[in-house]
Amino acid sequence: MIPGPARTLQFLAGLLAWTLVALPAQAKDRVLYELDARLSPEGDRVDGDLDVVFTNGAGAPVDRLVLLLYGRRFISPVPGLSDITWDRVYPRGFDRGDLELLDAWSGGEMLPPAVAVPGSMLQGGAMGEGTVVVQPLAGPLAPGDTVRLALRFRAAVPRRFGTFGTYRDQTTLSGGWYPYVADRHPDGDWAVDAPAPVARWRAAVLPPPGWRTVLNGVVHEPGVPARYEGTARHLSLVTGRRLQATERRTPAGPYVYCSAGAPPSRSEWRDLDATLGATLGHMDEVGAPRPAAPPVLVEVPLRVRLVELAEGMVLVTDRLYHSVPLPERWEDGYVARAVMAERLRPFTARLEREVDAPDVADGIAWWLLPGYLKRRFPKRLTVVDILQPFGAIPDIDRMLQTPAFPFYDEYFANPYAFDPLRDDVSRWHRADMGPRVLFGKLAARTGIASMRGAVGAYVRSLGEAVRGLPWLVLLRQRTGVDAAGLWSAYARAHPGVDFSVQLRRLPGLDAQGRRGVEITARRDQLWGDPDSPERVGVRVDFLGRPPGRGRSYRLSWDSAGDGSERAVRLPADGPVAFAKVDAAESLLEVDAEGRPLKSNNRVPTGLRASLLAGVLSLDLATGDIDAFAGVAVRRDRDSRHQFFAQLFHDPSSLVGLGIGYSFYFGEQVDGVFRRNRLGISVDAALLDPAYAVVHSTPVSVGAALSYRFDSRRATLFPTRGFRARASVFGGYEVSRGGPALGEYGDYIGVDLEAQALAPLSRDHVIGIQVKAGLMTATLQHRLFSLGGASDLRGLPAGSSLGPGKVFLGAEWRHVFERDWDVPLPLARLRGVQGALFVESGWVGRDPRYLEEWRVGFGYGLRFYLDFLGVLPGVTGFDVAFSPDAPVGNLLPLPMQVYFVGGQSF
Fold first, then answer.
1. β-strands 199-206, 30-39 pairing
2. pLDDT digits 0-9 by tens, 216-258
3. pTM for this one?
4. What does each C-alpha distance from 734 to 653, 743, 803, 808 come to in angstroms?
5. Are residues 871 and 828 in contact, defined by beta-carbon separation less than 8 angstroms?
6. Count of beta carbons in the 10 Å neighbourhood of residue 485
7. Whether 50 contacts 178, CB under 8 Å
8. Residues 6+ apart with CB under 8 A from 543
9. Three state DSSP letters for 629-665
């Protein structure tokens, strides 16, 4: 079909506009790789010979090639791993990876050794030392000339999860396991932080005997070399002893699924067929072209991400359909997004610059995802929907606020927690934000409806006979927004922003005397591209209206110095609830640990209520329970000020009520919580008569002032750090009635406590705990006690009481196994840890009498679990003995057995 004049003019106008956007243009280098590689029998080493045929496409001679050695970034542990995420990367402790360039030849002569570029000279902060090397040539290479280099290399594949590692007879190498030539900027300088340029490949890879191989989406049977010839940025290789490939058919087309272990069950196959069928059907519905080959999904051991894009295939976690079933497979949307992006990549590569094509495909796929989900799940239920009702539970509240858990991005749909491990070889050396965020920035400029229209038009144009328009050109043509500056800015650096707002209520705003507010918005910090000014929205919500139904206004800043202000007076239809800067959070950025940088953008900040409930100890020998339930209230995204109220029960109190206030300050250490805490509390309790001073049932009233310091980076799986607590307390006890009405006893005291954790190795941690206290009276319910799950565990709680206390305890925690994957009814058992403890203490009036010192020892087990296949946690039990312990009621032995819901301290 011959295109009409209008279509031809549209194409020529777009081509001219794109030429202006892309100037200065670059004559691209041409690279051909000829690879012959062999894997060791265990899959943990690759020996290879690589011929690089390089044609100089620049306008000046070159006398060297810059090579990237991605595998060298694994010579040291991945930075930023927590006690939770470490096991999701290194199941058996750190294992070193490497990529060595052994020698280089050209024209039959050995070339000088390659020289590593110091890390301080590199733009990408996460690249690592030795990942960029300069290989001298035998002589200058003139423009248009070609040189052939013969490189010999060796890659050490670490034992780790992810896209570069080997695990349980399966090796995953999603690019970068060989040296490759860096891209170049239009001016001819080497672009070490750009994606690998597209190149021609002729590759043959010999896997271990009996291992099936998938190379760039092509499945090869065991015992034969895997071969690939074509155009690609990288070679993505997955090979394994138990790898099985199955071709499935859906009404919308076929797909191939490669399972790494046990194949999917019948119900899991139904889910996969529905997911892929809806994905392919949705792509047909929006007019996307079909590639020649069906999509290929390969299971690999991912533990931090659900999916990763590779060359010609989509890598999915081997836990994808083996977690606890929920009303909707929450993984579904992320698999669909990856499949759509992989389907778009060959077509976006025809329109876009090489550096932009992968980001455009991925960003377009994110914007197609809502349509897919509507097709697949008309009544969609997400993980956030499932967990939000339980947001009052502190651990879930912390998860919803802080990306410190595995699969965070996938679970909570947070576009700002982008690949903290940078396992994707196409982005490992880039400082920019992910395509999902970048497209969100574009939508903030164009509007959501305009953005959807542009995405639809772009996808339809990919399959048309006449060449379509590049994404930024089409976006400008349809919306009138020139986003080239913003695109280039976010492709170069990770910008950050911090805005604050002040709200002042006005008695009258105009001649009619209408009420109003004055908002002064201040740009506290803004960094990134100085030529790309940011605009920020201000929304005012009013009491009595549904949230989000207020009035919205736009303020903007130019590139002048920081600290500038903009003020606007707004009419108010009623009492103002709050004013919020950037209600859509399109400017929200995060720091290196995923915490929001913009935390002061609302006046007043919204409140969050968290349920405080739990069983501190359950003594199976005596039946004593120490439990509490209550609520804590704090500001959203900030725990500096926290109020709480709770009901409690312990061996001395039938029921009690406590209220208090805590002020957190200092460095953030666990989610939004901070290293230091000051607290004040008041409580009243109805005491058990056995603990009363008077004969009638008494009421105890007390207050405490405390300070706590906690340097542990995580409280769920702590392996290092120090915690100390000091409190001063006092109160009195009064009879409720009877002949002793008015009798009372008062008390005052001090309580000190410290714990320290020191790792001997990854699997062995020594913990030390010290306690001391002194009080002035002998009220039984307030006396220091020795015994219980959080004290000398060999004694029952409250078996020894006194006005003075000294306690010493030591615990050796040792991991037996970190790498299990046992399905349980509501969780998956990941590992088990043992804890050998010895404890000694005294309560009384004079610690000099050694015969009054009590000792105990015991052993406990801690089970590492993933509840619902999602939430990491610890549970277990302790068995403790003491020669001074009475024989228990439930167990006729001088021992105590405790069920515990976490670590001892």
1. parallel
2. 999 999 989 999 999 999 999 999 999 999 999 999 999 999 9
3. 0.80
4. 14, 6, 19, 34
5. no
6. 12
7. yes
8. 574, 575, 576, 577
9. EEEEEEECCCCCEEEEEEEEEECCEEEEEEEEEEEEE
